[in-house]
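Q: Flagellar biosynthesis protein FlgE, please. Structure only.
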Amino acid sequence: MNVNNNLNSAIVSGQLGLSRASDNISQHTNNIASLSVASRSSQSPQEFLANAVTTQLNAIKQTLPQAASGSITTELVGLSVNSINAQASTKVIDTANGTIGTILDILA
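A: Structure for Flagellar biosynthesis protein FlgE:
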C-alpha cells in the first residue's frame, strides 16, 4: 500500500471539492442577486403582495424545488448545501495534512 498516493488523492479530492463548492456558492450568490434586482420593480404594494402570494402558492404546490425555477428558496438551499460541502472538503484536506505530519513524526 502506497501511503503517498493515498494522501495525495485525499488532498486532491479535498481541493477539488472545495473548488466546486466555491464555484457553486458564487453561482447561487449571483442568482440571488439577479432575483433581488428583478423583484424590485415599480409595482404598487398591492401588486407586489399579490405576486408574492402567487409565487408562494406556486412554491407550495411543488413537492421538490426545481433547479431551473430560479426561486430564492432554491438558491438559498444551494448556498447552504455548498457551504456544508466546502466545510467537509476543508476537513478532508486538514485530515490529510495531519496524517502527513504524523507520518513525518514517525519517520523522523
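A: Brief note, in case it's useful. The first helix runs from residue 3 to 39.
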